Model the fold of this input.
Amino acid sequence: MPLHKIRDFDPDYRNYFGDHDILGYDLYSGEEKVGSVEDLLVDDEGKFRYFVINTGVWVFGKKVLLPIGRSRISYSDRRIYANGLTRTQVEELPEYNNLTPIDYDQEERVRGVYRRGETPLDTKTPVDTTATPATPATPATDRNTYHYDRDAALYNMNEQDHQDFRLYEERVVANKTRRKTGEVKVGKHVETETAHVSVPVEKERIVIDRTNPTDAGTVVTPGADAFKEGEAIRMEVYEETPDIRKETVVREDVRVRKEVDRDTVEVDETVRKERLDIDKQGRAIDEPSETPRNRA
Done:
């Protein structure tokens, strides 16, 4: 069955690990650092089969395959533990080349190394040293019928070593919503009023003044115009009349605009947070810290 790199098979592979990016985790065998995790290989069904591990601490520059069942993931300290991996096994394992597809024969060489290194699961049971050592049984290997279930110890993840659950906490998310609080309509209308205007005008009138001459009663010789009929004085008389009319002028400009007043609203909200309650019985190993390290 062909194997695929996890990034090529599913770019969202982090979802399988609780949004943790295990590629790049440090690789440990027991308490000894071996190297780091380079990649993860899956089959056509998307099942995890091998970690590609860089064993540079033991064998410089060598990359080999670690069956998924021989690993334990520790998210708290960003480590992959290779159960029972030895330097001898790393030296015996065929080197992984990401440019060359992995075939059945190469997988068999990998499985052969790990099969020879398998130990009994119950290490507390006394071993009868007088008995004749049994030859490890090698599963039937047929390239046409082989399935990974035949090597369950290599490919099945031990759920006891990979139990986890999530701690949740509430947080206050401060957003803003825009809502309409009112409306202002600015228009115009016509008002009518009576304007009172005072206009001074002039009127001419004729004033006739009659006075006694200083030579009244004195005998005079009449002139040629005396006692002449039709003699008259003409004088034109004028008066002013008001000329009232209306004209339109600009009184003022009106500009309508908006201004934004800013204020800070203080809100108190009660939030909840889940914390671990650890009931330790016996010796606690790899106890998680309260605040996990920042993960990529």
About this structure: DSSP finds four helices and seven strands in the chain. Strands lie at 4-5, 26-29, 32-42, 48-54, 63-67, 71-74, 79-82. The domain at 4-123+133-161 is CATH 3.90.50.10 (Photosynthetic Reaction Center; Chain H, domain 2). The first helix runs from residue 6 to 9.
